[in-house]
Amino acid sequence: MLDWSKAPNYVAKCYITPDGGFNMNPSHREEVYNDIKHQYEAAHWAEEFNQANPPKKIIVIQCYVIEFINRPGSPVLGCERYVDGHDKYGEGFVKHNSNSGV
């Protein structure tokens, strides 16, 4: 029997339209790749910061791009591991900001 509590769940992210819908327009390909590049840049600087042995380390979740090759225009989405509040060591994750500034 599959134990979903141990399954490697992921979250795919796309842009939201002003009316609350999902925007998977293939024209957003460059923006998605830029978002991923920025996240990798943030991870790099977090590693640099953590080398100073701060009291609390910064962890940036690794992200990926997934491409839907069988859909018109082959749209892409950002994708990252689902985090349920704690990592495998029992450390908690706190979201300090969002893309919307809230």
Please, could you describe this protein's structure?
This protein has one helix at 29-50; strands spanning 10-13, 15-16, 22-23, 63-67, 76-81. With 102 residues, it is an alpha+beta fold. The protein has a domain at 26-93: Phosphorylase Kinase, domain 1. Strands 1-5-4 form a three-stranded antiparallel β-sheet, covered by helices on one side. A two-stranded antiparallel ribbon has the order 2-3. Strand 4 and strand 5 form a beta hairpin. The chain is globular and about 45 Å long. The termini are far apart. The model has no long low-confidence stretch (mean pLDDT 81).
Layout of secondary structure:
Blueprint: E1 10-13, E2 15-16, E3 22-23, H1 29-50, E4 63-67, E5 76-81
Antiparallel strand pairs: 1-5, 2-3, 4-5
Category by helix and strand content: alpha+beta
Q: What proportion strand?
A: 15-25%
Report the span from N to C terminus.
Answer: 40 Å
| Individual helix count | 1
Q: Let me know the CATH homologous superfamily of the domain at 26-93.
A: Phosphorylase Kinase, domain 1
Describe this structure in a few short sentences.
The chain has 102 residues and is an alpha+beta fold.
List keywords for this structure.
102 residues; 5 strands; 1 helix; three-stranded antiparallel sheet
